[in-house]
Amino acid sequence: MDPNARTRIATTNSTTPFSRSSAAAMNGCMASALLAAAATPATAKSPACPSKKTSTTTNLRARAVSCRATGRSSDDLLWLPRREILTGLGGVAAGLVGYQSFVSSVANAAEEVAAEKCSKPDPVTDTLIECMDPTIPCPPTSKTPIVDFTPESTVKRIRRPVHLLNREYQEKYKEAVAKMKALPASNPLSFVRQAAIHQAYCDHHYHYDPDKKNVDFDVHNSWLFAPWHRMYIYFYEKALGQLIGDDTFGLPFWNWDTPAGMVVPALFKDSFANPLYDSNRNPDHLDMVANLNFLNDKSTPVAFNGPHDKAYQEAIYKNLATVHQQQMRGAGCARSFLGEKLCTDNISRQGQGSLESMAHTALHVWVGRGGGTSCTGGVVDFQGKTQCANDMGFLGSAGRDPLFYSHHANVDRMWHIWATKLGGEGFKDPEWLDASFVFYDDVDNPHPVRIKFRDVIDTKNLGYTYDAEADKDLPWKDCQLTSLVPHTKGAGGAMNKLRRAVTKAAVFPVTVTKNNVIEVPSVVVPAKKEGQPRVLVIQGIEYDPNIANKFDVALNVPKDSALDVGPQNFEFAGSFAVVPASGAAGEKVKGGVTFSVEACLEDIKAADDSTVDVIIVPRTEGEIKINSAPTIQS
């Protein structure tokens, strides 16, 4: 490694509160029983949910496998919509009044969900989607034929933590972005055009079925999320290096998963002649400990360089617990980490994985300027309306903030760590592997390149890797969680029998609002099958895209304790969360979410129970409609 690329004392944060070695020893995140009590890796493979690849971390509880719901074949994955057949899932529990009938209905619903098939339209390729705006943000038309991506022969670029860059590398980063911003907008590798890529793919500019032009396309809320963003920042990184004549330049990442990096990096905050500065960040958060669980944490923001008191320690601990949940407990298989297949002939069936729904989304909203009814310098959306929630805080403008790319470099690193250190394995389905998109390459001679998901699974094919020193100590890996309430083995749920008898079950569809906790008692837990981690699936979620939306999900927590549950607790199953985007008045976007719950079931002593209580805890002000009752699948 280049000895000038790193300074052991961070020049961008001179008062670094935590060293790498001390972070792992922080109170509350010491070595925990989660690893010691890990399950033995499966030896038999199931065609429905094959076991993970061989790994040096096979003792991890969060077993990472590539899995699909039982009863599905590979030909129902990643399909595009067929014209008039976009429909939402109906209410599977309408009219229920007693928990006995509710159990039966949920069981039937689980079978129906598992049995559903997508029709067989065409898989996602650059020929099946079209950008509908003839100006920016759509990419310019090229007279040069599209060429297929060629893997890089060697690894030349090492991505390093922003807060540990030395002065020389900091200036190199600034120079590269300044030169990109100086390029004319006619160049598809200019900063304006690079920012527009995210706007186009994530904010209603691309549509399915170009002949019909009526169905929006988005790379979020499905298994497209991680590989698409990896492609995107790969070409961005290459352009930066070319602009400064350094093909070894690696895009620095915002190392928000370690205590020393849990603040907006100082390199991005100096407003004087700094191409990395963005004025549309929330000024109240710039010098605070970044909140990786933003939108549901009731605590007051804590100064990063303030007293290292109890509040500070608690903020750091909750952040580490959030990453632990995202990367390990909630990431037991590809579905729950990378997201569900994109099955848009029934668009309610798609779903987020933990990589998208947790720290990624929280930091978008944390960094971005908040919304409001009026603002100066807002972003104009595809309808011509000014959006006040920007830049990182709004999908249409997120790419305008240089911090976005360093943030997503760390999101990409989280995928890399999951795949290389935690035994994670992606999908094997050809419909995922052969999905393709087109990006421009070469600043001096821009030309379109078609790249497939199979090309980006291994970062070596892209010529980059991550700083090994930064990955040597992962302070969140051994984070010790706590139980919010006591649990008894065989109880079958947090509510006792008497309480169940008088509790009215939620009737789906159900509309949830902030702090209005929803109890779903006696959700059937299928028997554990070797090599098939159990996942909790919620589909048919409808929400207003113009605002931030979030709810948490917990297991076997009494309703009166539910608002206190968080990633630091064993009962926490995961979060559904989205970054605001454009939307017409009254428009609803459909999505879903999938959580691995194997470790959660074990820790609340319910691994062998036939049912559990699923608790939905809304965290944001807007109404979220959930059409389908939660189901647990194996």
What key phrases describe this protein's structure?
634 residues; alpha+beta; di-copper center containing domain from catechol oxidase; Jelly Rolls; five-stranded antiparallel β-sheet; four-stranded antiparallel β-sheet; 19 strands; globular; copper; metal ion binding
Describe this entry's structure for a reader.
The model is unreliable at 1-28 and 30-121 (pLDDT under 50). Helix content is 24%, strand content 14%. It has two domains: 129-471, di-copper center containing domain from catechol oxidase; 491-633, Jelly Rolls (Sandwich). Helix 4 crosses helix 6 (225-243), helix 6 (225-243) crosses helix 11 and helix 10 (359-367) packs antiparallel against helix 11. The chain has 16 helices and 19 strands. The protein has helices at residues 20-23, 33-36, 99-115, 167-182, 191-202, 225-243, 310-329, 334-338, 354-357, 359-367, 402-420, 430-433, 453-456, 468-472, 497-502, 598-603, and strands at residues 129-131, 147-148, 157-159, 206-208, 215-216, 379-380, 386-387, 436-441, 447-452, 464-466, 510-512, 518-524, 535-543, 549-555, 572-578, 589-596, 611-618, 624-626, 631-633. It is of the alpha+beta class and 634 residues long. Strands 11, 13, 16, 18 and 19 form a five-stranded antiparallel β-sheet that branches. It has a four-stranded antiparallel β-sheet with strand order 12-17-14-15. One of its GO terms (molecular function) is catechol oxidase activity.
